[in-house]
């Protein structure tokens, strides 16, 4: 039973890393499309990569305290939520439009 738990944990860790890497690929593709004048946008998947990574770490029973901070700081999709959401709320509340 432990083998299945470890296999599932490693799968979730790798899938979380894949989603984080895909978020970086979205940044590169969006910059390239903007430079070429192509009006096509690839969107991020915020928070899912780090969450899957952390759930996988808990299955493998590794210490997750340090990795939680690092994974959330590395994921650009999470940056979008952590930085963009307060900016959007602040701009919405104080824009002066009614």
Structural description of this entry:
- The protein is built from four helices and no strands.
- The chain has one domain.
- 78% of the residues lie in helices and 0% in strands.
- With 98 residues, the chain is mainly alpha-helical.
TL;DR?
With 98 residues, this protein is mainly alpha-helical. Helix content is 78%, strand content 0%.
List the helices and strands and how they pair.
Layout: H1 2-36, H2 48-60, H3 65-74, H4 76-93
Helix pairs in contact: 1-2, 2-3
The largest sheet is: none
Q: DSSP helix count?
A: 4
How would you state the average pLDDT, rounded? 85
Count structural domains. Answer: 1
State the secondary-structure class.
Answer: mainly alpha
Indicate the overall shape: flat
From the N-terminal CA to the C-terminal CA, the straight-line distance is: 59 Å
β content, as a range? Answer: under 5%
Radius of gyration: 17 Å
Number of extended strands: 0
Helix content: over 70%
Element string (H = helix, E = strand)? HHHH
Poorly predicted residue ranges: none
